[in-house]
Hints:
heterodimer; A: Alpha-Beta Plaits; 2 domains; six-stranded mixed beta sheet; B: alpha/beta
Amino acid sequence: MPADTEQNKQPVIRISGLRKKFGNLIAVDGLSLEIFKGEILGFLGPNGAGKTTTINMICGLITPTDGEIHFQGNWSRQHNNIRSSIGICPQENIYWPKLTLYEQLKFMGEMYGKTDRYASKRSQELLKMMGLESKSNVLARKLSGGMKRRLNICLALIHDPEILILDEPEAGLDPQSRILVRGLIKSLAKEKTIILTTHNMDEADRLSDRVAIIDHGKLLLVNTPENLKKSIGEGDILEITLDTEKVENPEKVEEVLLQICDKAKISGNSLIIRSKNLIGKVSEITQKINGQDYKIREMTMRENTLEDVFIHLTGRKLRQ
Amino acid sequence: MKIFSIIKKSFKEQIRNFWILILTVSMAPFFVFIYYMIAEATKINYDVVLINQDNGFDLATGKFNHGDFLVDVIRKYQTDSLEIPLRVKMVENRLEAEKWLKNKKSNALVIIPADFSERIVKLATSQGDDGVDVEFIGDLTNINYMVTVIWVNEILSEYIVQVTGKPRPIKIKETGLGISGKIDDFDIWMPGIIILSIIMLMFSATIAIITEVENRTIIRLKLSRVSTFELLTGVSFIQILVGILAVLLTITVAVGLGFNYVGSIWIFLLIAVLTAISIIAFSLILAGATKSSNEVLIVGNFPLFVFMFFSGAAFPMRAGEMFSIAGYSLSWQSLMSPTHAISALNKVWIMDMSFKDIIPEITALILVTILYFIIGLWLFWYRHMRTG
């Protein structure tokens, strides 16, 4: 998705000043956000940050205390018109244990007001797409954990919703299923808007076009993962091993490097440099080291991760 | 359309919960069987010990022994009449008979005297007016002794009237109300027991509804914008069918165990089905007040006991009238639908009354059911379906 999407596209969902109070607890506090058609929005936040409450308000499962949610330009306080346009795959697998996979998919299709024929065809398509075709007539309670997760995604898609909310979609999946689900999410993003909540930063980084980070009910920031990694946190890490036993004047070398980097520390023949957008500075760093009459034996770089950004913004302390 | 899909889904789930279905429909017949066993075990019998000392009387045609004939008549009553539950034991001497009395194995000892035949013949031919002496022995303070000797006295008097041709000084005409007198305890208990059996459906019906909440599948249904009415009507429909099946099985078992009913079977079925619908409507209230099967089993005991003990299902209950509408008395118990159902069944089965006579009960039953349904729908919506 291009970085200038926000200027070019109309939002599918526009949330403004959203607020939810449960007694004295403010779960969501004045959250404003726009979600665009065809994007995958990673919705990140520590436990208790207000992610689920926000999603429940988007789905219309709970009513906001204050604020508005516009769906394709229309606003409804009860959001009833949005409900049928949203498919949700909750973190916990929700299914009917005594119905077969086909039966429950068809049943849910009918509950969304689809015709018997459509619900039947769509059920078969989804089962095939999720690799569950052979389990079509098996009772859901007899499935493995990974299969139940895939069934959960099928149930979210049965009515072909415009917006798909996936809460920890890869949780409990084996590597094969994870690849299948990731591929599916990517392919669905071409035609649907996807909101992805996850604790897996790697998953969010790989899949999301934009990432929204929420904490204490407030939206901290929203941007593309690349922009976030470039601008937030302590930056990338470059580890250099010099072709010498020991650097004789480490303070001098560090001083030279600190002219272009945020942090530089020498220990023995090992040099650790930290700075944002470090990849663009590698050539200059190499020149500076060579200028000090040292040769580089080995160099490894680790990019600033979304996890670093997340920790930087939300802190390391566990929630009580 | 949605209701039909929910009915189909609920039907499949019900069938696949095979053991729960079997236990649900067999619980009520089992309950009837238990009551039958209790009725049989507690059936009242009046035990009488007889000593026949009658020497008989020589007639031209041969020897004639009225004592033997009387014993035969008493024995005949024992086997042929439900109304006189006498059990007779013949013994040879008084000493042995008194042992039976002292050991509480018998309620009364009756001694037919040696001149029993002679006295009867003299009475019949008007040669004497001394009457007939028959000795009754027993615990005079024991109610069973009194009932026993009343029955023996009645049989004895009838026998003497017949063989002597002398009229009774007092002729009593006894008229039973409805079919009372022709039915036993099991028959009397049956209306209440059948309604009690239906009340028991409360748990299985509530659990069938609350499962959606417990499994959290209610979230999927809420998202699909299924209305509370559609969901509960669909789920309740199958539970009503289960209820009807349970009722039919119950009545079949009851009849098989000797239950005698009068009146139309269709009126019975109407009352039973309306009661089943009513209990399932009440289950909606219970489902609205709970969140899991465990809660249903705990919280559900309260309405179950109230329905059992205050509606007249477990035993007859007399309620103080608060007011009446068109002559139909209403009390606080009228808020319980089984109260009306039991009253209607008693009228039909015990009093042999017609459908017209139970219209007030049927009307009240329907109105209370509608009230339950409305409260149940609202409460379920408020607790489980509305947006918070």
